[in-house]
Amino acid sequence: MDPAAHDEAGGVDAVRAAVRSRLRGAVIDIAPVFGFTLTFALTHRLGIALTLAFMAGAGAFVHRLVRKEPVGRALGILGFVCVQGALAARTGQATSFFLPHLVLHCAMAVAAPVLVLLGWPPLGVMVGLLTGERTAWRRCAVRRRAFARGSLVLFTGNVLMLTIQLPLFLSGQAVALGSVDVFGPLVFGLGALLGWRVYLRALGGHRCDAGLPADAGLPADAARPADAGLRADPARPADPVRPTGPVHATGSTDPINPAHTQPPMERTVR
After folding, report:
1. Helices 71-91, 46-66: crossing angle, 10 deg rounding
2. CA-CA distance, 87 to 95, in Å (whole number)?
3. Please, what's the b/e burial string for 211-237 (b: 16 or more CB within 10 A of its CB; e: otherwise)?
4. Which residue of 53, 73, 101, 234 has the fewest CB atoms within a 10 Å radius of its CB?
């Protein structure tokens, strides 16, 4: 099997596994939001809803530690829940609990088109981190364009969430806002999966070897032809053409081998 094709297949498997893991983890991520929304809908008491949200966040944190997931991610999610609760407790408004999510969606909606224009599509950055190739994909123009198309799917899903959530936030409908916010991680995971499919379709059968030198895996002497330096130097004059006809001049020299001098030829006088 071609090593480049094997590496690409491994990258595809890594991305698919990461997206599936993200979709499974979304159920845990939405536990604090779901608990807060459900409790506030039943009791309309902000304190009880915040308490249940903190408990759900702590439970998700312990669950991730038991599963030996990265501690940084678990702490980040727990810290995000604490920020949400602090905002809601300070303002006394249940809708403030969802403000960090709105700010995050707005930042992504603004940053995504800018990153695409700068040649750093978000989907490509995510895939580079997941597959371990980092930014090597940027050396291939075909892959950059394919990642840009896939990033538009993520951007569309993010804008769709904003168009629904922003009016609910401004009108103070906390329960409806929470009901929509529950689907945020799921929308992001599905957007990443659809964006990956768009990327593969746009890539087609293209195989990019931009990251590898043309003589990779060859010895130094075998990688460079013997006359490569002669052909590559534009300042070197062209080799003289070896004469093919009879030589009539006396004492002529072989143009290819100057050391070889032909003997004088007698002229026949008629």
Report:
1. 180
2. 9
3. eeeeeeeeeeeeeeeeeeeeeeeeeee
4. 234
DSSP state of 264: P
Angle of CA points 147, 70, 186, to nearest 5°: 50
According to DSSP, residue 261 is labeled B
User: Collapsing DSSP states into helix, strand and coil, what is residue 243?
Assistant: coil
**CA dihedral angle for residue 185, residue 186, residue 187, residue 190, rounded to 10 degrees:** 120
CB 187 within 8 A of CB 157: yes
User: pLDDT tens digit string along 174-231?
Assistant: 999 999 998 888 888 788 889 889 988 888 777 765 443 333 333 344 444 444 444 4
253 beta partners: 261
Q: Which two tokens stand for residue 164?
A: 């629904």
User: What pLDDT digit, counting tens, does each position of 37-93 carry?
Assistant: 999 999 999 999 999 999 998 988 888 888 887 778 778 888 989 999 999 999 999
Q: Strand, coil or helix: what is 253?
A: strand
Structure tokens given for 174: 């906390």
Residue 219 token pair: 């010895």
Using the Cα atoms of residue 27, residue 29, residue 31 and residue 37 in order, give the sign of their dihedral: negative
Pull the structure tokens for residue 211: 């990251």
Spatial contact of 93 and 178, defined as CB atoms under 8 Å apart? no
The CA distance from 204 to 69, in Å, is 35
